[in-house]
Amino acid sequence: MDRWLRNTNVVKILALVIGILLWAVVHMEDNTLPGTSNNGVREEQISNVTVTPKYDSNQFYVQTMDPAEVIVTLSGKEAALKKAMLSKYSVEVDLTNLGKGERIVPLTPVGFPSGVTVRVSPSNAKVVIDEKSNKQMPVTINVTGMPAVGLKAGQPIVKPNKVTVTLPSGSIDAVESVRAEVNVEKAQSAVSNKAKLVAYDKTGKTMELATINPAVVEVEVPITSPFTTVPLQLKLSGEPPKGFSVASLVQNVDKVTVFGTQDVLNRLEFYEGPNINLADLKEEKEYTLNLDIPLRNKATQLDPAKVEVKINIVASATKNLEQVPLSIVGQNDGFDTKVVLPETGKINFVAEGAPAILDKVKVQDVQAILDVSNMPPGRYEIPVSWNLPTFIKKSTPQDFKATVEISAKK
C-alpha cells in the first residue's frame, strides 16, 4: 500500500476519481428540477383558465366580467400535481347573492385535490350584472321561394303564434320582431315545418342575447291556386206564367271565392251563377232551390260550391204608367232625329208585377227605347223596347211602336 502511495501516477489517478465524485455530489444537491425544492415540492402554472360565473341565469345576466380568463399556479409534490392536472377543476366567481350593478368579487378555485396549494392570479374580477326582462311578442313568418307553377302560398298558420322574449333590462325595448323563415320553393301542397325563431331589433339586426321561449314553432303554409272573391250573379231567364210574378228572390250566398290562374281571375268582375228559368215556377208558393254553382271560364274551384235560392211567386197586379218618355239611342251625330208619332214623344204603359214591388214603381223607373242605329235619313216606324225594373214585366197584349224622322243637319 505504501508502495502504491509512493507511486505518483497512482496518487494522481486517486485524486482525479475523488474530485469527480465530489463534483457529482455537489451538483446533484444544487441542480434540482425547476420549481422543485429540496423536499420534493414543485410548482406548476396553468394559463388561460376560464372564469365561470355562478348566478341565477333566469333572473340576471352577466353583462361584463374582467378578467374572463386567469392564471392558476399549483404547488405540491409531483404525484399531487399530476392528479390535479387530471381533475375537473374550475375557477368560479360567486354572484348568487348579488343584485344588479358593478362588483369586485373574489375568484375561487374549485375541484382541485388535497395536497395542492392553489393560487389564482388575479384573485378578483370586476363584474357588471344586469337584470333580465320578459316581453311577449307575436311570431312573424317570412315565406321564401315560389310554389309550383300556377299555385300560390297562403297565410302561414303558426303554433304558438306568440312567444316570450327574455333580454337584459337595458335591451328589452330594442326588440322589434320575432321571425322565422319557411321555404315553399316548387311546393305543390301545404308545407308543414318546424322553424327556429330569431329576435331582431329595429334596424333588422339579430339580437344574439335574446332567449326565446319556445325557441321553435310549428308552421304550416297552405299552397293553393290563386283566388279572388267576387259577387255571385244568378242568371234568370223566362217569366212566370201569365197572372203570376216574382215577389222576392233571396240567395244565401252573394259572394263566391273563385280559384284559377291569375290571368283568368284578373278579368273577373262578378261570377255568373246557375241559371234559373222563372217559367218553370208555375204556381203561387215559395220555392227553395239548392243549386250547384257551375265552373265557368276556366275556374278550377269555387267556395262555396252551392247556393240556396228562395223565390216567392204570387198573383200579379197591374199598374198604369202614363206619359213614359221615348228615348232615342244610336243616332248619328250628323243627323237630326226626332219622334213624330206619337207627337208628344210619350206613351202609356201597363206594368205587371207582384203588388209589393209594383207599388214602388214610378214612371222614371221605366225606359221606353227606340234604337236608330245605322239608319240613314228617312221616316221609320220602330218597335219600342223596354228597360224595366227587376221582376216587372209589360202586361200583355201591348205591341208598342213609334215613328221617327231622320234628316241631315242643315
TrEMBL record:
Source taxon at top rank: Bacteria
Record-linked InterPro entries: c-di-AMP_regulator (IPR053154), YbbR (IPR012505)
PANTHER family hit by this protein: CDAA REGULATORY PROTEIN CDAR (PTHR37804)
Protein name: CdaR family protein
Organism (species): Paenibacillus baimaensis
